[in-house]
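The authors assume throughout that readers already know how a fold can be written as discrete tokens. What matters is that the chain and its backbone geometry are given together, residue for residue. A single example would do more here than another paragraph of explanation. For illustration, here is how one protein appears when written out as sequence plus structure tokens.
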Amino acid sequence: MIPALLALIGRLSLRNEVHVFALNQEAQSRDWDLAGARIHNVGERYTRLRALRMIRAMHRASPFDLLQAIWSGACGQVAVTAGKMLGIPSLVHVAGGELVALPEIGFGGRQTWRGRMREALVLRGAAAITAASAPMIELLAALDLPAQRLPLGVDLDTWPARVPRRRDATGPARLIHVASLNRVKDQSTLLRALAALRSSGLNFQIDIVGEDTLQGAIQAQCAQLGLSAHATFHGFLTQRQLRPVVESADLMIVSSRHEAGPLALLEAAVVGVPTVGTAVGHVREWAPQAALAVPVGEPTELAGAISRMLHDEDRRLAVAHEAQRRAIQEDADYTAGCFQALYSKVTSAS
């Protein structure tokens, strides 16, 4: 239910018959229609094997032209294996931590030799590889895997642009952080940066939006650092609920150890909110003209960058305008057009 993927499915469905095989959506196998496509929820137990059987059966009834995996890992493994079985092209969009190894937090597709072998077989078996940001393309190039940069853009029909505005310097600075609470998003570094900002005398409030997967550990750390009066934890919000919270912000803050995107940066940019964050994904790709980037895991550096942006309104607005320009230029229509062009190229060559 990621908005950018729903937008992509909907746009592709205007010109193609689209079937989505969801590996981990619901426990029970069932089908439904969504965004112009037919969704096939594979269900639990022997998921990859059952997915392969479902794809093969549907292909026999009405042949597919190609298979597209969003994420490598298990999704890529199913798509590439099915493509080889059926003799049709398979494509993989690397959208997460498939290419990294962060053993200190147990994250990444390349932590073990089995993971590295799986990714090598999947990606070398794909007819084409795409990824959202330049740092991801660099990771693929380091593995001698040619790939096309293809960002997952924002749907401007459902998330329209809003002109960047000057911030109200008479009240507290409004910060926002949108990400699931987990070790990869590294909210611990975020909170330590906020503690440094409070010690410097900065008046701020931060909205933290995202599902909690750490059983309250981040909220407890927030209280231990004396930040409870400065932070509001919203949990998961729908897009409709999220929109006014993002619009009210002066800065989006990213603290992740790794990102392929993130989509939160793009959505903030569309509504005129610039990003300060760790040098991952689009943050590193856009810095310094359209974002401010600092080293991963450095709360002092992150606090300093936030402070500099908030104390230089002309620069904050300049970064906001450039970020918005880039996000609008590569919106959901652009994404779908790029995928469609790639599909035409791959199928004509097969």
